[in-house]
Structures are given as structure tokens and as C-alpha cells.
Amino acid sequence: MPFVLYVLALAVFAQGMSEFMLSGLVPDIAAGMGVSLAAAGSLTSAFAVGMVVGAPLMAALGSRWDRRGALLCFLSVFLLAHVVGASTTSFAVLVATRVVGALANAGFLAVALAAAAAMVPPDAKGRAVSVLLGGVTLACVAGVPAGALLGQAWGWRTAFWAVAVLSAPALAALVRSLPGARPDAPQPAHPAAAPNTGVRRELRALREPRLLVTLLLGALVNGATFCSFTYLAPLLTEVAGFADGWVPGLLALFGLGSFLGTAAAGRLADRYPLRLLVAGGAALPLGWALFGLTAGHPYAAVVLVLVQGVLSFAVGSTLISQALYAAAEAPSLAGGFATAALNVGAALGPWAGGLALSSGSGYRGPLWISALLVLLAWAVGGAAQAVATRGAIRRRRAAAAVTAGTPPASGAPRTPHH
After folding, report:
1. What is the DSSP-derived secondary structure letter of residue 65?
2. Which residue of 52, 151, 190, 237 has the lowest C-beta tally within 10 Å?
3. Alpha helices (H) along 230-359
């Protein structure tokens, strides 16, 4: 894999830390800014909305630049947003920095996905995606617990400064690793610096049914993941019986599983995507259901925290790479729509889990909702496959009928049909 891909992963690590670290900082932010817990919690919603809305919009904006310029601009804005957020005494400004940071994060990830796919051979997109998303999973393993510890030791502003400090070397490395695109050159100096294609043509390509189904499946699977992950801490303390001190380690264990799942997808998704999706997609709802049944047993909870992290991100990473394959005619916007789909799941999953909690189903409720969301993904995928199979059969029959009615000229070889 190209070195610059790992530099992009470092930037994604900093952005992933920013996205998830607030779960451990909300009480301190509420106390420090003099607002309610609910108001402080809105910072998470602001970031999620910025990611969903920003991914396609920022990808479209970035398509007007060469990818090097887009990546450097988005990362610079992200860094500055965290510097302002760490310095401000105004809660309204802090909310604004979360929205701006999310827009920059969404744009960076969208362009980075497109750039990663362009850096590698056409049959290696799964590996490229796994390296890039490795930054997100490492943020779950190390970045989020580190942010929580920094907040506890020196205040929540320290965690914001840490994100800015992590972004700085990534920005400097990108300046050195991505050569500029020369407007007068027939070919760009580096695939990541390539100018993007027309937005209108790419939007037409994004109507392809296989891509739309893949994006929907990604949203459902990611929704299932974050439905349970968001409420994992109270499940572990109130149902499994762990002390509060165990929670950061168990969350990191889920992050370790997500890293392993992403790494496995990187090795398998390019060669055996259907097998991985079928096997992982079948095991995933069973794992959530088993977790719901055995959550009261600490040892079972520990094992399933790891296993579900592996399965969730193995399936999710494979779906992202398949979206990039399906959107070969929309290389610039595909990453944006994949990012938006994942963040739709990240926003709707916790909302669905919250409904389960408020309905009186207890802390196991989100686990059952996660199982149902993956089963829904199975139903959608199965229906789409059935429609595609029937369409292929009709096309083969029509081709056979045309061939039978108009035989080739004498001596000409008959064209085989598949």
C-alpha cells in the first residue's frame, strides 16, 4: 500500500477520535460551559448531522479542486475548528465548531476514500478501504479512551487540543506526500492529486441499483453497530455487573474487535466479498441476539463485545469497498455517499436504541434492535438479489429468442451467450 494512504489513515484517526470522544466528556462540558447535560449532548447530534449533510455536499465541492487541494483544505479547516473549540468560552461557538468540524471531516473522508481507490490497482479497493478505516477503528481502541482520560485529568479542552495536535503532523505529512497537480500536464503527478470528473455525470452514475442497495445495506449494518455501541456502557454496568472502572477497557475491546474485523475485510473483501457478506451477515444478527440473551453473564459479555466488534466492522468495511466498486463511474462522489450512508446509520441507530430504552425493554433492548436491523439488511439484500436474478434470466431468454430467430450467416461462427 502507498505510504500516503497511511498518512491519510493518521488524519482519519484524529477525526475518529473527535467524533467519538464526546461520549466521555459531556458531563465536564456541561459543567464547564454552564449548560444542561441535554444541551451538551447536542454537540454529538450536531456532529452527526454535519457528517450526514456534509459528506455529499463537501464531496461535490471538492470535485471542483484537485484531490490534494481538497484534502489539505478540509484537514486545515478541521484542525482550526478544534483550536477554536478548545479556546472558546461561548457554547454557541462550540456548537458551531462541531458542525464545521463535521463538515470538514465528511469532506476529507469522502475525498480520501476516492483517493485511496485511485492509488491502488482496480482489484485492491478493499485493502485500501481497510487501511483508511483502520484509523477509525484505532480511534475506538486508543483515541476515545485517551480522550476520556485527558478530559478527566486536565479538563475537556485538553481532548480538543489533542485532536488538533494529532491533525498537525498528518497535515504536514500530506503536504510532503501529495505532489501538486500541474494544470498543464496531461497526467497528474499522483492519483490522489487527480482532478475530479463532472458532478452531473457522476450523479447519474450514482443511480445504479447495485450501488443504492449497497449504500442502504451499509446504513442498516452501521445503524445496528452504533445502536448497541452507544448504550454499551450502561449495559455492561447495569446488566453484566461490571464496575465503572472496567468500562473504558471493554469499550477498547470493542474497538480492538473493530480493528481486527477491518483488517480481515482488507484481506478478504477483494477476493471473496459475497462469501464474507453472507457469512458475516448471517453471524451478526445471531451474535446480537445471543448478546441479548447472555448479557447478564460477564464472561459471555466480554467475548461478545469482541466478537461483535469483529463482525460489525468486517461486514461494514466490505460494504464500503463494494460501494466503491459499484460506483466506478462516480469516483469523486462515491466516497461522499458512502460516508453519508454510514453516518445515517450512526445517527439513526442510537435513536432507535433510545426508543427501545424508553419503551421499557431495558438495557438489552438496543441489542435486539441491532439484530432486527441486520435482519432487515438481509431482507433488503435478498430481495435485491432476487430481482437482479430474475432480470438476468429475462435478458438471457430474450437474447436466446433473438438468436434463434436470426441465425448467423452461413459459415459465420455462432456467438456464445452467457
Report:
1. S
2. 237
3. 232-234, 247-268, 273-294, 298-326, 334-358
DSSP 187: S
* Single-letter residue type at 36: S
**Whole-Å CA distances, 237 to 31, 233, 295:** 24, 6, 10
pTM (whole model) above 0.70: yes
- Cβ atoms of 26 and 41 closer than 8 Å: yes
- Predicted local confidence at residue 373, as pLDDT: 95
What cell was used for 368?
A: 435486539
Separation of alpha carbons 215 and 361, rounded Å: 30
337-339-341 Cα angle (round to 5): 70
Rg (C-alpha) for the chain, rounded Å, is: 23
Q: Determine the straight-line distance between the first and last CA of the chain, rounded to whole angstroms.
A: 36
Q: Which residues of the chain have pLDDT under 50?
A: 181-196, 409-413, 415-418
Distance (Å, rounded) from C-alpha 228 to C-alpha 21? 17
